[in-house]
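Co-fold these.
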Amino acid sequence: MNRQLLRKSEELFYKVLMIISTVIIIIALLAIIISILVKGMPSLSWSMITQTPKGGYYFGKEGGILNAIIGSLYLSGGATLLALAVSLPLALYMNVHKLKQKNVVNFIRFFLDLLWGVPSIVYGAFGFTLMVFLGLRTSLLAGILTVALFIIPIMVRSMDEVLKTVPKGLLESAFSLGSTRSETAFRVMLRQCIPGITTAILLAFGRAIGDAAAVLFTAGYTDYIPTSLSQPTATLPLSVFFQLSSPIPEVQNRAYASAVVLTVIVLIISIASRGFSMKYQKN
Amino acid sequence: MKCCYILVIAMPFILLIGLLIKSSLLFGEKSLTELIFSSEWKPMSGKFGFLPFIISSLWVTFISIIIAAPICLLTAIYLTQYARRVVLKIMQPVIDILAGIPSVIYGVWGIIIIVPFVSKVAGWFNVHSSGYSILAGAVVLAVMIIPFILNILIEVYRTIPIELSEASLSLGATKWETIKKVLTRKAFPGIISSFGLGVSRAFGETIAVLMVVGNVVQIPSGIFQAGYPLPALIANNYGEMLSIPMYDSALMLAALILFIVVTIFNMGSRYIIIHYEKNI
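Predicted complex below.
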């Protein structure tokens, strides 16, 4: 009887601990979002997101962070496109051409996972070295190259996860109708997986827009909206970071407001990608 | 398609070789043991001791994993074994959003909430601390790696065949006993490798940690003291490094150390996972 009670109470004890840790995670997320909103909302104004910094902006005068918003969109958009050009063929190659050679596919997956694990600051340092080597200066182009390197493994692996789930029968019927492997890849597989692939692209875009360490060395920082690839560009994470290290309270408050802008962008991307992946699951 | 394939396979080696070449300048002057075990960091007079940075990195990573590991393990067990499907449906977006929040936002959150809190906690122990400390860095880092570890753990517990727990339950074990003695034992390699991947993620995280850890070059003697992890060292000095070749080389060596440590942890964990999947 006593032993029975002990067994039951041990289970109860751990169950309470489990619920507590689950709640901790939910609270952590809420705490992050609420604290950012509470700190940032008061200083967020229309002019902040529609103007570039004016003279004396960094001393608390007028202006906004449009340069960083547009810069971030350019940078992550460019990097996502570049990464897509490498990732999509590779993911299809792994799941159509090398379908029978499990060892090759697992080998590539292993390398992709290794690359995914490399910290973005290492990509940043490497990108900087590459930039000097190629004779580039800190610019949109150098930033795009570095960030693309950083998000390629993320993109390929997420696409791979989607393509993996396509039933073999679909491929076999395409082959039996006489289509080549590449035709099957681009006409059948791609069409079948468009929502899933869109999710993968959005995920990579979200990563690109939020990362600061990779662009710290390579993209530079400027108050202007870049008009060509060879110009430096501001990015949102860095604008939060730089404004927050200012000793002037107004500038610090704007850092919090910029953090709100970044959080909202990332949340929108997250919700959109969730929508696409739900659509995919229905199919 | 072949080109993309080759690019991915070659990339880790290109990274390694690029960083090696850049840091070779420093190797020419000093031995590796001298660099790693010396604690004197005076770039202007050519003294590069990495010990304070390595110790800080180890402290921050270690404490963050100590905080994150039990939370992830308990939550993963709860979500896969006890909770209703609805709970998992609610938690999945929570985990995804946490995983997607940029590190600079974690840093801002750390400054708003964690740093003052740590300062207060230090007061309870009669330690004076600004709050910008190893502990603050570790807490922020813990929250950052939780979604990462948790996702892997949920997957690990899901792949265990249901027959195993059915057999155990039919022999009269309670649900908790089954989880403790059968499932967790079966999942053990997966659990260890998820923590290994968490360590590698934590070791290289830059901006969030940099913002709350204090950045004082010293060997920290307590968790309420400021530290200066390796990624922060690289990020903070990128501007001035170009003027002195040795300094440039030293920062690339820091990146190289990061790359090697993280890759070793990654490879080890992946190796365990691959073996584990074969045994199921």
